[in-house]
Structures are given as C-alpha cells and as structure tokens.
Amino acid sequence: MVIHCTGLRDRESLIEEAVEKLLTTLDLPEILERTARLLRKHFGGTRVGINRWRAEDPDVAEVLLVDDSRQPTPSPGTVFSLEGTATGAAIRTRAPVTLDHMGLTDLGGGLGAGRYREEEDLARLGYGALACFPLIAEGQVLGTFEIAHLPKEEMLCRCFQPADRISKLIAIALHNSLMVSEIRRLNQLLDRENTRLKHQIRETSGQLKYVADGPAMRAVLEKVHMVAPSETTVLIRGETGTGKEGIARLVHQHSDRASGPFVAVNLAAIPESLIESELFGHEKGAFTGATKRKIGRFEQASGGTLFLDEVGDAPASVQIKLLRALQEREIQRVGGERAVPVDIRLVAATNRQLEQMADDGAFRADLYYRLNIFPVVLPPLRDRPQDLRPLTEHLLERHALRMHRQPPTIGEDTWRALEAYHWPGNVRELENTLERALILSPGSELVVMDLGLERKTPTPTPTIAPRIQPFDNAVQSLLRRALDETGGRVYGPEGAAALLGLKPTTLQGKLRKHGLR
Predict the structure, then answer these.
(1) Is 157 exposed, middle or buried (0-12, 13-18, 19+ CB in 10 A)?
(2) Residue 317 in contact with residue 276, Cβ under 8 Å?
(3) Is pTM, for the whole model, over 0.70?
(4) Quick check: 377 pLDDT over 70?
(5) Could you say which of 7, 263, 408, 508 is the most buried, measured as most Cβ atoms within 10 Å of its Cβ?
C-alpha cells in the first residue's frame, strides 16, 4: 500500500524508517539507493533527485541520484549549470524553494509560473509541483534534495513537512559519507608521505648512491642540479638501461616538490587503449567496466613530479592531451565534461629519436618542443669506463645485502672480462649480470666467466653446420645481434632498423615482443 503523508502517525513512521535506513551506512551509493526506495514506498509516483554542490566550483552542481520511472535522466555524474534553476536558488538562499501548478502559464504570473529552468521539463513529464531543499550539515551546503509530485497529490500541503525532515537526514548521511571519503584520502596522502620518508632513509643510508666518477656522468649531474630547483620540464634521453628513471628521481629529490609524490608511468608497458584513462582518469560510466570514477596519474602526482617514461610511445590522441596539460595546467577525465586543474612538474624520458619521429609525422612537433626545453642526455655505459668499477662494487653490495651475504671479492680476470664487454643493455644489463653471478658464485670470489662475457661475438665454426633453432629463438638472436652491432641504436642510418631493413616502429614492436625492450 502506498502512503501519501496522510496522517501524523504515518509521518512519524516515515521519519523513524528514514533514520534507520539513512544513518546506518556510510557508503554513498547505498545511501542514494536507500533514499530512492524509501521515497518510492511512502510518496508513490514521485521524481527524486539529489545533487552535490561544492563551494570551490559554485556555478555548477553534480547529479548524484535521479529516481524517476518516467524519465531517469540526467544520469549520475552529470554536471549542470545552476543559472536560473531552483537548485541554484535553494543553494543560494539556503532555504527550500517550491513550485506549484507547474506548467500553467495562464495564472497571471501566479505562484511558480515559469520562474525556474526545471519547470518546463517537469511539467512536460506530467508533474505539478516541485520542492527543492538545501542539504546543510554543520553550516555547510552540500547540495540539494528535490522531489516532484503529480498534480493530484497536493505535495505542498501534505508532504512538504516530512520531505523537509527527510532532507535533513539525507544531509547528515551525505556529510558522514563525505567525511569518511576525506579520511580515506588523507590516509592515502599519509601513505605517500611514508613512502617518501622511507625513500629518503634509504638514500641517506647509501642504498641509492648514484655513481658518477667519470666526467660524462659528472656533467649530467651538474645539469640535474642546475635544473632541479626550477619548474622546467625535463626530457631525459639515452639508450635503454642507462638509468633514466634514476635521474628523474634525482631531479624530483632536489626540487621544491621533493615533499610531494613522485609518480612514474611507463607508456610502453600500458596497452594503447588504456593509456588515456591511466594518465587522465575516467568518470563512472565512461566506458564498459568503468564502474566508478578513477583518478589518473596526473592527479595522483599533484604537488609533486610526474615521470613519463617512453614518452615516444604515446599515441596521437594522448599526445594532444599531453600538450594541453602542459600548456593549460589542466586535464579532462575520460567521459568528463569539465577541466580539472593539475599542479605537477613533468619529467619525460625516451630512447627514441623524437626529432626524426616529428619530421616523419609520428610525433607532434609542438609537443616535442614543449618537452625538449631542458634535455639531459645519459651516456651509455661503454662511454663511461671510469664508472664501471665503482658501479659494479655498489651494485654487488646492494644485491649481496638483499641476499643476506657478504659481497664477494672480484679478481683481475673478472674485472678484465667486465671491462672488455660492451654492455649493450647498459646499467640494467650489468645489474642483472651481477645478480646472476652472485647466485652462481656462493664462494668468496665473484665468477662471471660462465655468463658469456668472455668474448663479444661468437666464434664461427665453418666446418659444422649450425643447429636449427626454433623460429622465435632465431628471431630473438637476430635482433640481439643487430642491437649489438649498432650499439643499441634503433633509429637513424646506422641503427638496427636500417640494418635489418625494417621500419623503426616495427622493430620496436618486435623488440618488445621478444623481451629486448
């Protein structure tokens, strides 16, 4: 049986049920669903709406709930202008706004005739009255609760008072839910701060020592210390494995943003269809599977540094948004309708020839110039021989500590083998080699002779036909040889792509497929 606020007993029963339903959960979607069920039960054929308003964006409101069997729109998450609306009037005056006899324009300017923007649409749906209540908790306006009735139900004389009381309960429930969300947000900030402090402790203890004994790396660090205090965008360039993320962290740590988050994103590791959502976030319902709003990496890095690794892999659609984010200092979430301001310092990295890509139309020239304000070029490990020994000792010490053992000694034969190798994978390959050698050297001296470093190229055996390898192994071997012969370069006339007769982008895809990038 549907009740229409016909008596005091029914009204009190309604309020008691509202207290029980609305104030016993902190989950906002559950609060909204319970509100809709409660009002359908007691008020019959009504249209119920709840909107969220924020003082920092005073000219708009966001739809949280529309429950209407006739037309359940606009959908949750929709942002609309408050100009000329009853919603805006209720927020501005902090008092209920009512409209009766909606759609009747022959009343000589009578009550509610054409005063607010909602009236025409609601009248077209057959509603005769609207009441819009501000949701106020602890002196703050949080939004509005709106209820529209059919003309025959005489809402203003029968149901206004219980709806007003329910609006106060909705305000309390909404306030409690928002407070819990804020506590969760602050906990996330606390977790980030804890991570940052642990990072500082590790750096202080020497675990994150940056080895730069040779002149090439000393020049790089001088540039880092010059640019770090500014807000300038930095583009770090170098072959794969040269330590580009380490330099990006160094820029962050020596900047005024060191107390903020450092958020790293490798664009090459994200499927192209997800890059935009990962960087800029998305709204609920933006695409299949988007069941709730997601904050992207730009917003996560607010107040700190965003590191975009492999920026050359950004698809064209993302390049446009990156350019706007850098120029306008704002982003737009996928499926969103309004700009979101962001406060980040961008550091990007690539091992690609962005100039050539820009000339070929594969990378936006305007984005390239915006990224390349302050380039930092990392030399490959083969060009910094003075750093090999101290870097090896540092990496051995770090990995030995993780294995709970003493670092082994290194004999001269081993040093000669390490120094004779040209390290196409740079510091990453050296680190992986040393970690593997530690596992294979349980004694007090490090042994690397079984790791393939004793010669740069395989010795040919012309008298014996080579054994046929599986196809994937043969391709991987060919790609590795091409990288070795070109010093790890992919682009340019002396690069591996030209050597193999492939497009550079095609070669990059094959390298990733076979785990060589």
Answers:
(1) exposed
(2) yes
(3) no
(4) yes
(5) 508
